[in-house]
Each structure stands twice: as C-alpha cells, then as structure tokens.
Amino acid sequence: MQQWARFAILGAMFVVAYLLILAWQKDYGHADTTKTQPAAVVAHDVSADLPNGQTTAASSDVPQANIAAAQQPTTAPATANQQLISVQTDLYHLWISPKGGDIVRIELLNHDQSKNSDEPFVMLESDSKRTYVAQSGLIGLNGPDSSRAGRPNYEFEKTAYTLADLKDVKDKDGKTVKVLTVPMVFKTADGVEIIKSFNFKQGNYPIEVSYQVVNRSAQNWQGQMFGQLKRDNSEDPGKSDQGIFTLGTFLGGAWGTPDEHYNKLKFANFTEEKLDQQAKGGWVAMVQHYFVSAWIPGHFGGQEYTAKLESRKSADGMNIIGFTSPTINVPAGKAMSIDATFYAGPKIQSELKDLAVGLNQTVDYGWLWPIAKLLFMGLQMFHNVVGNWGWSIILLTILVKLILWPLSSKSYRSMAKMRVIAPEMQRMKEEFGEDRMRFSQEMMALYKREQVNPLSGCLPLLLQMPIFLALYWVLMESVELRHAPWMLWIQDLSAMDPWFILPLLMGVTMFVQQSLNPQPADPMQAKVFKIMPIMFTVFMLFFPAGLVLYWIVNNSITILQQWFINKSVEKDRLKREAA
C-alpha cells in the first residue's frame, strides 16, 4: 500500500509538469526568433503607412454586400491629399487614413513595448513589415466603399487632435463626460453627404465609430456598414520570451454572441472553419498576448441591429474578421445614423465585460477559469491594500494555505504517523520475509491500529495541482501583472527569474519538505524521490517568477506545518509508550 501511495504522488507531480508543458504549446505555433521593430508612422510621409487594400486592385478586402450593386454611386473627384490624421488621448496615440477612414496605427501610451523600453506598445500598424489595421466603411447599393473608384477619400478639418480638443458632453445617463470628436466628410456628386466620426472618451479605450448619411439627392440611399480587422501572419509582439522556452498564448480570431459567449478561431481556419453567424449583441476580435482588438456592432435608428459576423482570407493571404450590418435605407431628404464600437487595448476584464457578452473571456484562463478568476480576485484585493503584485502573491498563498489547512493537516498527520511506524514496518518486513500475505495482513492491522491512511500523502499535491495551474494562467493572461515588479532583482513577475535564484530556493524548499515525509522502503523509489527536487528546479528555471514565488511560499508554510505536526505525533507516541 505504501508503494502505491509513493507512485501516486510521483505520478501526480509528473502530471503537473506535463499539463504545464501542454499549456505552453496550446494554441501556439512555432516561435520566430527574428524580432524586428517596424518603422513608425511618419506624419508627412504616409506612402508606406497606408494599409493594404486602399486601392481598387485590393477591393477584395471589402466585404460583399447582401444586395446587388446594380447602381454604382457617382463619387466626387478623389483628393490627392493623403495626410494621416493624428489623434492623441491620455491612453493612446493613433493615426487615421483619410482614404477609407481606417485606423492604421495605434500606440498604447500606458504600456511599454518591452520591459527595458520606454517606447509605447504598438497595437496596430501598417508598413512594409507588418499589417494589422481596423477598417470600416459603407458598402452595398450606394455605399462609397463599393465604388469602382475604390475606397472614398474623406475630407477632414485638421491633421492633429490632442487632449486640448476635448469637450464636455452629456452621455445617455445624463453625466458629463469629456469627448474628443474627429469628423470626416465624403460628398457624392448627386448630393449625398456622409459624415464619419470617431468619438474618444477621456480615460476610455472604446472608440465609437459612427456614420451619418445625409441624403440630399432625389432618390433613396441604400447601404450597409461594415467593420473588420485585417492582420497578416506575423508573430505576436506581446508574447513572453523565456530563454529556450517561449511562453505563448493564443494568437488568432475570436467571436461571441449572447448564445455562444466566447469562441476562438485560428488564422489557419479562417476559411476552412470560417465564421458565418447572424447575431444581435455579438462581437468579433483578434486576440494576442495581453491585448485585444474588437468590433462590437452598435445601433441604427436608436435600436441595436442584427449583424452578420464573418471571417475570410484576402487574395494576398491576410486574415480578416468582421461584421456587416443589415441594409439601411435613407429616403430622399432624410438623414440617418449607424454606429459601432471599436476597442484596441489591454485585456482588462472590468472594461471588456461592459462592452459585450463574453468579450471579457478573451482573458482566457483555460478550463480552470473558475479557480483562476477567484485567484485573480484575491490578488486584486491584496494589491489594493499593499500596492505590489509580488507581496500580493505571497499573501494570496498564505490565504490559500489557511483555507486548505484542515484538509492538509489531516494528511500531514497521517504522513507523520507513517514516519513514526517506519521502524516497525521495517521490523515486520524482516520478520515475515517472503510471506507477503502475512506481511500485508500485519501491515494493514498496524495501519488500522495507528489510524494511518497511506494514500493521504497524495491529498496535499492533488489539492495544489489545480491552484498551481490556474495561477499559471492568471500570471500569463492578466495584463495587470505584465512587467509587474516585486523587489530587488525581480522586476517582472510574469517573466522568468533572470538570476535563477527563486528556482534554486524552490528546489531547496522542496528537498527540505521531502526530508520531513516518510522515506520509501524501496531503494529505487528513494533514489527517484531524491532526484525530484533537482528535476523540478531545472523545470522551473524558465517559469514566471511569480509562479515560482508562489511555490516557494507554499513549500515554506508546508515545511513549518509538517515540522510541528511531526513533533506533535512523535510526542504523542512517546506518551503512549511511556503509559
């Protein structure tokens, strides 16, 4: 029975290791060792910064309307002015192309490109090295983006907007908010005026993109709004590089509806298993490590509309995921508006959950998400008090140990009794020799008399396995812990310890903890268990420092707990023998 308990513990430890290796590779392809920083958008030289698909030749990027384009709109002469429009808020700096009104670059000002860089993280960009843009427009019978002349060229008031352009506006709840509005105008020769507006709220990542169609022509105007994300197959710039290991999370498309909250779609499946859904209250997104960009269809005529969610590949191999609204009709002499919300920024759960159902699940904690969410809530609670994520991990570990204390104490007490009766078991083994049946009977009688459960040694590890795996995903997926320092040399809890001190300390604590456990009677098992601390030390060298910190604190508390329990059991046995 004792041998089975040993093998169960050993197997459980290897299961932890195996699951973590799978977690590294899940939803992730081969790493690309070449990392280059694309050139930034240049305000006065935009030829290399415009996204692909802004010419007639690349019209396949524009989604197909669900009505026949029997009539092509008569467009006004295209302007030669291709100056990008710069918009800088308190959260990001972005650039809008007048051709099509696409967002071609976004820099997140509150997030560094890397730990040792003061440059902002580049979320969207379009140049010779990388294409990742947010496109929107009007297609259909009279939509200018369906014109044979290509994407429309919008007129604009000025080329740069800053926080000085913020204005006080009443929101739907009557509260005063500061909003920066960037209007763009396109006019057709037959008297239709299209006003495309980008509305930025101070302190908010979501951007409201709206179209107002003012029909001064003599005929009915028909069209559909679309919004889409276009990205090439380049590597995730937000992934964590951990030496010989690359800790990768999912890179690809995602979508959700009120009925199917969160679905992932790999780039390779954009055509084979392509998205084709009709939904009201849905969303589409592109997900990467720590960050997400998403389109959320909005309202038409004050009502939420049912949009078509779809994915596809462009002729040049670009990955496109987006939505298309129903056909809107604007009678002659009337004006109507339609809008959608665009989000590009960090995966902050509290903000994403308010935008659309399931969008906050892009913070993907895997199949252990209920435990992971509880752990993250605990970390946030402690962080609000101490203001440091490292100390928050330590306090969370103590809290978890206190919760599991009754169960683990019972298990450690049984293991302590195993240590005490080990000499008696060795004597019985020598006495009964090859009579295995008699030895088993005497051993079971001894277990019953001493109230020992030999399998109880598996319980602490089995309890810790889901917590350990869930915390791994919390550290890997929560942008709040990205580049979060602890103290001294640990300046990024989501990355490995650069000096490998924490993994070595973890190995020491694991060795000490093992010495407090009953030692295997079988010499081969004893050797295997002596090697385990070394194996796990090597294994943990490239894990996030925050995860290793959790393991060290957990082992340290366990050592104290086992030491006191061992002393108590030995003392009780001596009293019984004296009596």
UniProtKB/TrEMBL annotation:
One of its GO terms (biological process) is protein insertion into membrane. GO terms for cellular component: plasma membrane. The keyword Membrane applies. It is found in: Cell inner membrane; Cell membrane. CDD domains: 5TM_YidC_Alb3, EcYidC-like_peri. One of its GO terms (molecular function) is membrane insertase activity. Residues 85-376 form the Membrane insertase YidC N-terminal domain. It is a multi-pass membrane protein. Required for the insertion and/or proper folding and/or complex formation of integral membrane proteins into the membrane. Involved in integration of membrane proteins that insert both dependently and independently of the Sec translocase complex, as well as at least some lipoproteins. Aids folding of multispanning membrane proteins. Interacts with the Sec translocase complex via SecD. Specifically interacts with transmembrane segments of nascent integral membrane proteins during membrane integration. This is Membrane protein insertase YidC. It comes from Acinetobacter defluvii.
